[in-house]
Design brief:
Length: 377
Amino acid sequence: MSIWKRIRHLRTFSMLTGAVCTSVVLLLGNGCGGGFPPKELAEARITVNRRTLEKKLFFEDSSLNLVTDLRIGNFDADLEEEILVLGSNKACLLKSDGVRKSCLLYKIDNLLDVRAVDLDGDGTQEWLAGGLWGTPSPALLNMHGDVLWKYDAKYKAMGDPGIVDMNNDGTKEIVLYEQSRGLLFFSPAKGLLKELKVSQPVAHLKTGDLDGDGLLELVTSGFDGVMTVRKNTGEIVAQKKLPFSYSDFELVGSDRQAVSQILVAGEDQLYAFGPDLNPVSKLDAPFARYLHVAAGVRLPAAGRTTRGESDEYASILNGRGGWHRSVLYVNESSGPLIYQEILDENFQSICQFRSEGSGTSFLVGGRGKVWLYTPHR
Ligand SMILES: [Ca+2]
Ligand SMILES: [Ca+2]
Ligand SMILES: [Ca+2]
């Protein structure tokens, strides 16, 4: 039986209980469930433990506020690898053992959802910030925290601006959705390059390379449950109404493959979609009906070195309501859950750390904290 057929019978429940709730959640980013988590998520605990993961506080700095992106790479002039930690107030560079190398505050306040991007392709990272519905304007900073570009939206702009090369000139542009105008494509130097009307309001927007051709695609979801994949130029390549209720989604990649997949939580499953919006993987995810995907990464499976199907998924899901819980899932790509932990705080970022014989360790970023999870031998 196809995945779609199997989930169809769950749809009625979703339509009844999910539709109203989802619209509110999509519109406001919170609302359903009020201030309290569902009873299954009331307590922080490990609920599935097929693989023991050792959890250790790796870095702590409360003035980071929420850690929204984590990257491993060489970000300064030396030859060593660092860990870049981007928070909503400041950025820190750590040595590979988690010791602080340097930190700086952004020269602009009230940033949300800060992510590392290389907009101009020169090998150095810029930091792209967004915001929630109706709150701070999107901005691009350089590694020193200077503001390279900022957009003061007249109408409500959605968070999560992305980057695509919309005119195929080799330099990426910033794309964001503004209510009543549509998709807007900006060059930090030249300003607004293009305005693209869309038929339905956009709730969420993400960009990533879904087909491996080196060009980033643009993925949007609407309040009507329709997901759309567009080429870098804005042309629609796939569009589908997902047959379950969902909130936000994420594009998840891996260290070894540039190709990202679209990860969405629906019913008690996680679905990974390819560029045609057909499912690539379906993962067991108890309680996912209360949650949306906040961050995810594909990790090399323990003892495997081949590409592709042996990857595991590690993902962080947050509550669709206004309550503070995250759930960490580690799944085999064929679906079974390896590890699940209900976390008593909000997490927003995850990245691969090291790959060893016993498996792959990863970092998870929360409010002022970065945790290291290492598979136990
Ligand atoms: Ca750059
Ligand atoms: Ca361009
Ligand atoms: Ca592509």
